[in-house]
Amino acid sequence: MKSILVVEDDEMLGAGLCYNLELEGFKTTLVQSFEEAGKKIEEKSWEMVILDVNLPDGDGFSLAKKIRLKDRTPLIFLTACDLDDDILKGFELGADDYITKPFNIKIVIKRINAVFRRTEASRKELFICGNLEIDFEKRTATKNEKPLVLTPTEFKLLQLFCKNPGKVLTRKMLLESLWDNEGNFVDEHTLTINVSRLRSKISDDTFAYIKTIYGMGYEWTGEKDA
């Protein structure tokens, strides 16, 4: 159960937000002041902090600085301050999202879940593109949440493409990258076969992913009909 610290001086609004978050399976703690929030942040690590900018005894921007000095806890500003300068300042301080009041609670929950997904993907070295999820650390990949069976060469190719989106990878570059530490050689014909097999496993009517740049090599696009 993910723990969320909600810093909101409007007791009714904060209680309502916490109630809805707990219905979604989150564990919440509500505080209403800068001082209380500072103590809670020092006491333990939180999996997310939702923070109002205007607090009775301080401002949320200063609190955000304090949080960022400690760690990279996901941080969302939830505030009536909708001026561009305030929003930009929030992101400059490391906010993962900035939601203005009044808000739709269903949209807030969607955005909270989106921040968690991005954070977890970053921590796990998880690459998400279209209907693919690739875990470089575990060397696994899924398509539409179903496991893909890839050979070591196919996975290495996939990793090269994913880490170089929008760049043309020449056949020479790919051949050099696929040459392993034991000197096992991958020739032009083998490269063509492996790219073709990889395409057949990851592509569909919506995502082609790998675009052939004739006379040069390949490019990772993630687009339809590449």
Number of domains: 2
Question: Residue share in helices?
Answer: 40-55%
The helix tally amounts to: 8
- What separation lies between the terminal Cα atoms? 41 Å
Query: Structural class of the helix and strand makeup?
Result: alpha/beta
Overall average pLDDT:
88
Number of strands: 14
Shape: elongated
CATH class label of the largest domain: Alpha Beta
Largest sheet data: 5 strands, parallel
Beta-strand residue fraction:
15-25%
**CATH architecture name of the largest domain:** 3-Layer(aba) Sandwich
**Oligomeric status of the shown chains?**
single chain
The CATH superfamily of the largest domain is identified as Response regulator
The CATH topology of the largest domain is Rossmann fold
User: Which residues sit in consecutive blocks of at least 5 with pLDDT less than 50?
Assistant: none
Which short descriptors sum up this protein?
226 residues, alpha/beta, Rossmann fold, Arc Repressor Mutant, subunit A, 2 domains, five-stranded parallel sheet, four-stranded antiparallel sheet, 8 helices
Question: Can you walk through the features of this model?
Answer:
This protein has 226 residues and is α/β, with parallel strands linked by helices. The protein folds into 2 domains: 3-123, Response regulator (Rossmann fold), CATH 3.40.50; 127-220, Arc Repressor Mutant, subunit A, CATH 1.10.10. Helices cover 42% and strands 23% of the residues. It contains 8 helices and 14 strands. It has helices spanning 11-23, 34-43, 60-70, 84-92, 105-123, 152-162, 171-178, 188-202; strands spanning 3-7, 27-31, 48-51, 54-55, 58-59, 75-79, 97-100, 126-129, 132-135, 140-143, 146-147, 168-170, 210-213, 217-220. The strands form 4 sheets. A 5-stranded parallel beta sheet has the order 2-1-3-6-7, with helices on both faces. The longest helix has 19 residues, at 105-123. The model has no long low-confidence stretch (mean pLDDT 88).
